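WARN  no MSA supplied for this record, continuing single-sequence
INFO  ligand: pyridoxal-5'-phosphate
INFO  echoing inputs
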Amino acid sequence: MTSNAQSSRHSQLSSEELVARGKAAYLPVYSPREMILDHGKGARLWDLEGREYIDLGSGIAVNALGHQEEDLVQAAIEQTRKLWHTSNMYYTEPVIRLAAELVEASFADRVFFSNSGAEANEAAIKLARKYASTKKTSGKREIITFNGSFHGRTLATVTATAQAKHQKGFDPLPGGFTYCPYNDFNAFEKIISEETCAVMIEPIQGESGITPAEPGFLKHLQTLCHKYDAVLIFDEIQSGMGRTGRLFAYEWEEGVKPDIVTLAKALGGGLPMGAMLTTEAVGKAFSVGDHGSTFGGNPVVAAVARVALQKIRSPQIMANVKRQGDQLRKRLQELNLDMFKEIRGKGLMIGAELQDQWKDQAYEITEKCRHHGVLVLQAGNNVLRFLPPLNITDEELNTGMDRVIETLSDLHSGQ
Ligand SMILES: Cc1ncc(COP(=O)(O)O)c(C=O)c1O
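INFO  complex generated
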């Protein structure tokens, strides 16, 4: 089945030829699946040969409203026809409006726009350090992050990322980062001190396996951050923008208010954009010239992001996230093949951890799913990760899950 979108075959090259060219020309830091995705609509994608896939990964939580969402496309076209870059020397209306709407929708008073998640976190790290330096002329430089975290690939954010595999070979790494076991209340209490300037955490760890913070953990961090005058940073790059059924995942925990939240992925509705949201009190540590980015706050992306934000916040989308999240879990649980140790996560951010029998096979399983016409992600080597579009329909979800279940059943019966 193909959609009515035109297949862009200007190249006249076969998928195999294109893949071979990609392999020859790309710096080999990725291992893309060997197919050429050509076009998409809703939660469906088609490759160059016209094979259909249900997209249960949304380009790693980016395409929160699926592919070719009519209003997003329209916003992009309209703004593209007007103005698509000015630099931050000048104001543009879409960027101003988006910043104001993010402030209105959140705890924040101030917004800094970047192009990616790593840059949003880099901005957060710099702001926290600068803020501490306004209070103490020496010391108070330490940033606590958590084992299993993922905060990005720049040198500072890869150091914040408490996973040795991402840091190997890049030393010397920037100093001042300390790691704490995730969800370990006592360990955190022992590690935080007067030297701590910030604590950075994913309310649900994404890349390392969809692990939610235990109830009370974020509150515990907040209490101790207040005690030691440290800035509390929530990295909501994967878990934010409605993914869990609320705008930010931390909102599931009562009484928690961060000093900084970082966003990217779904923020631009599929186009590249990151943001650091903060309070007036912390934000005022930055003044003109302290930070910046040539592309940060692009008007075309902002025009799209405004529409995405409005839609994502709607009660209809939030209700869909809950309903489809419940349905996705139910389908995995009903499978009843004892393939999973645990199914965890919130809303449409779901991880299914494989039993030891299937240890380290997440990649192979996602490949088998792809051959059955459904795109599923992995998180680490042992977790199947599901991040479908937030507006996925019943039909799309059920077709996708039928294909997942079929794949897993075949695998289980050794086919
Ligand atoms: C929680 C989290 N933080 C930061 C990042 C880095 O974002 P980017 O790849 O846009 O730099 C990611 C990317 O997966 C992420 O999941």
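Residues 116-118, 121, 150-152, 202, 206-207, 235, 237-238, 264 surround pyridoxal-5'-phosphate (CB under 6 Å).
INFO  checksum written, moving to next record
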